[in-house]
Amino acid sequence: SSQGLSEQLDTFKVTGQRTGDSAITGSLTVTTHLTASGNISASGTGSFSDGRFTGKVGIGTTSPQHELHVEGVARVRGELMVGDSGATNTPSATLHIKDSGTNAKLRIEDADNLNTYFDFLVDEGNGLYINEASDTRLSIKEGGNVGIGTSSPTEKLTVTGNISASGIITAEGLLISDDATITDDLIVNGN
Fold it and tell me: Residue 175, Cα to own-chain centre: how many angstroms?
């Protein structure tokens, strides 16, 4: 039906309801608002000025799984903030992750059968951790102590496990509190 439909030169004008299919070749300008129920599809390029969506939006997919689901290549020019930060927070880095507790993390995971992953996370201002699954591999605590194999370094460098070095290890003071095995030369200068 075409109730309220009129055609004026190259203008498509609906003053009532329009049901059925209509094709517009060229541009369509809506100066107030456009309301639609059902699906809207488009091809080519488009833009929205202060556009708002409810539900899920899919780009490159017809079945989005999240509020924004992009299949294919995406680009953000500028800065991007993710996490549970306040709506008025402004990103201060190209990728800004801000979340509470140990949720502020970046996960890098392979896609093979093992799904091995590393998490880079900050724990409530307590430090930076690099975890493999649930094991802490490297930690940098507030104040500068670094731990390898431990999440609680007590010195500037705390290593849990064996250390292997090739080359010279230089120390102003050396305290050995347990057995030591030396398989090559030991040079001691001073007292």
Answer: 44
pLDDT tens readout for residues 17-76: 667 777 777 777 777 777 777 776 666 666 666 666 777 888 888 888 988 889 999 888
CB atoms within 10 A of CB 34: 8
92, 107 Cβ separation under 8 angstroms: no
- List the Cα angle 187/189/191 in 5-degree steps: 125
Closest C-alpha among 150, 145, 177 to residue 161: 150
Q: Where are the beta strands (DSSP E) in the chain?
A: 5-8, 11-14, 57-59, 68-70, 80-83, 95-98, 105-109, 117-122, 127-132, 135-141, 146-148, 157-159
- What is the Cα–Cα distance from 164 to 171, expressed in whole angstroms? 16
pLDDT score of 11: 59
Residues 119, 104: Cα–Cα separation, whole Å: 10
Provide the CA 146 distance to its chain's centre, in angstroms: 25
Side-chain half-sphere exposure of 99, counting CA atoms within 13 A: 13
Dist CA 35 CA 13 (whole Å): 15
- Rounded average pLDDT over 108-123: 88
- Band (pLDDT 50/70/90 cuts) for residue 7 is very low
